[in-house]
User: Which sequence fits this backbone?
């Protein structure tokens, strides 16, 4: 049985009107064009337990919207999202943490949200595995982009969730750390846990993905296993 | 040329943020200016006055004569006993109590009235002298006999500085709960997505109310320490003050956060809350009691829970009164707190749907 099921989901956004917000224009530059943005248009996908799935697509393709729907942060305009009963961890495209706390303090606070918090040794493992230890006593708001992304990832994995939803988890992360984190995630996946990663960085995740869903302009272009040369497969899918 | 480029950038910023900027430079100053319209008279003209029979000898006709005399400067309200009327004086429901003797129809003996005023309402001290004098003149004319109205001031002597302590306290409470708290919550808006998945926004606002509510105790402690050093006789930490301040913090804080979340945690919400604070300061009788307001404005003030908070805090600090005398005021504030928390929950639901 799928841990995440997205069934014919549509997501539309209406423009927010306000003083100073220009009215939308049509292709001829005339005011009065449709103010509805179609982010997702009939998307379906199913994520199986233990899978490492890539949700791939260029910027603005609808990945983050789909990710937020799966995370339960937004509701579909139509269709249905079945979320898992299992524990879920989320990392966000724009890192989410308390900026005025240190890295360790953030981990301590979010760990306390868990009804059955993991042993502190797991926190230490995260700090090492994600190469976050050098920044552990720094104020989170002062971290570089790479360390911010790593802290967000650590917070997502803090409760050792059964399902991990990661939105662009390599943003601003250096190459060496990327390899370390990828290995760490692969080991985590080997324990039977499910990972869904939303990214446009295909090469970075190619070695570890079991399945891919390619999204473009709010529709699914491909849903299935990755080929041996995922980068070429992805490019071909976008150019079809 | 740098300046021109930066002016161009500022023009774009102003256009992009027109709504909050208009709130800041138009609505906010306008609401402060509008607030001054609440106060119209230096001597109150529609002040509520308790009219009480001195004993069984006082007839309805005697009371009618006094009601007519009160018309010049106030609005007569009937009470059955002096004790009840004094209670109403302490609760700022009335600002004078006139005890009417019997036998006013007997033109052979002078009529001796007792008029009570509260020493604690410092801005009303001189007006109460003037009102008693007016009463003397009016009743002289109406009764055609010698009238002696003796003014008795209840409560202990309060200086203007002491009177201003509860005013400053409510002012601080308004800024703290309506402006500072929502601003502090807004500063953490970037973490809300994670909090929504790992905890809940309800838990977040509850933690804010608990922590910043407890810190409010330090604020009251600071006021108590300073007033003690200044030698004021204000009971800043009396049970009535602590209860009223706590309830006021909850209903104002919840209202401020409801506005914040209803407006998507935008900067404009902070300015709207500042406008609300201006309304609270103007309409709650912080300095001048509502007896100085016109009848309509007084009714508006009496609909605001902050008016009852102001009266309870002023009474708790300046008078030796029983908390139970203000039970209905505290109940009204508790009801306002429950309603504001309900409003906050609705705004959180809206925020979740909107974002």
Assistant:
């Amino acid at each position: 049985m799928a841990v995440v099921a997205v069934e014919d989901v549509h997501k539309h956004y209406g423009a927010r009107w306000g003083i100073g917000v220009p009215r939308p224009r049509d292709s001829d530059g005339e005011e009065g064009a449709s103010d509805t943005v179609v982010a997702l248009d009939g998307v379906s996908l199913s994520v199986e337990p233990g899978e490492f799935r890539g949700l791939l697509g260029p910027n603005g393709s609808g990945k983050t919207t789909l990710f937020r729907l799966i995370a339960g942060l937004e509701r579909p305009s139509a269709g249905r999202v079945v979320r898992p009963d299992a524990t879920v961890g989320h990392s966000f495209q724009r890192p989410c943490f308390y900026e005025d706390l240190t890295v360790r303090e953030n981990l301590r606070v979010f760990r306390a949200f868990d009804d059955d918090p993991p042993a502190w040794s797991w926190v230490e493992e995260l700090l090492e595995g994600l190469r976050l230890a050098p920044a552990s006593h720094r104020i989170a708001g002062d971290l570089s982009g790479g360390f911010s992304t790593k802290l967000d990832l650590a917070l997502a994995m803090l409760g050792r969730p059964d399902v991990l939803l990661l939105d662009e988890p390599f943003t601003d992360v250096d190459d060496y750390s990327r390899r370390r984190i990828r290995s760490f995630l692969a080991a985590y996946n080997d324990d039977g846990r499910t990972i869904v990663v939303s990214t446009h960085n295909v090469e970075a995740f190619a070695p570890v993905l079991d399945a891919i869903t390619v999204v473009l302009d709010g529709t699914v272009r491909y849903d299935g296993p990755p080929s041996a040369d995922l980068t070429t497969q992805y490019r071909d899918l976008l150019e079809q | 040329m740098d300046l021109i480029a930066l002016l161009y950038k500022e023009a774009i910023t102003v256009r992009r943020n027109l709504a909050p900027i208009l709130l800041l430079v138009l609505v906010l100053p306008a609401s402060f200016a509008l607030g001054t319209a609440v106060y119209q008279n230096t001597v109150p003209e529609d002040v509520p006055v308790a009219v009480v029979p001195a004993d069984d000898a006082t007839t309805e006709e005697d009371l009618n004569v006094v009601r007519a005399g009160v018309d010049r400067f106030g609005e007569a309200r009937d009470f059955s006993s002096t004790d009840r009327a004094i209670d109403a004086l302490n609760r700022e429901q009335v600002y004078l109590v006139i005890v009417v003797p019997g036998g006013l129809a007997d033109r052979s003996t002078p009529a001796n009235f007792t008029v009570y005023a509260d020493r604690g309402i410092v801005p009303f001290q001189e007006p109460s002298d003037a009102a008693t004098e007016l009463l003397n003149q009016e009743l002289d004319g109406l009764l055609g006999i010698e009238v002696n109205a003796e003014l008795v001031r209840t409560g202990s002597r309060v200086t203007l500085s002491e009177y201003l302590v509860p005013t400053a306290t409510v002012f601080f409470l308004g800024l703290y709960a309506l402006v500072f708290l929502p601003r502090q919550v807004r500063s953490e808006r970037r973490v809300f997505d994670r909090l929504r998945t790992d905890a809940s926004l309800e838990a977040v606002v509850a933690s804010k109310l608990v922590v910043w509510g407890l810190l409010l105790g330090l604020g009251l402690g600071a006021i108590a320490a300073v007033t003690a050093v200044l030698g004021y006789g204000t009971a800043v930490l009396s049970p009535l003050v602590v209860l009223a301040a706590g309830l006021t913090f909850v209903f104002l804080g919840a209202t401020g956060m409801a506005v914040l979340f209803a407006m998507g945690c935008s900067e404009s919400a902070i300015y709207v809350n500042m406008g609300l604070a201006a309304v609270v300061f103007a309409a709650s009788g912080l300095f001048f009691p509502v007896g100085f307001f016109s009848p309509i404005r007084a009714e508006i003030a009496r609909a605001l829970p902050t008016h009852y908070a102001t009266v309870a805090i002023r009474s708790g600090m300046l008078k030796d009164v029983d908390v139970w005398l203000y039970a209905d005021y505290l109940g009204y504030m508790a009801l306002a707190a429950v309603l504001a928390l309900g409003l906050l929950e609705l705004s959180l639901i809206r925020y979740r749907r909107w974002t």
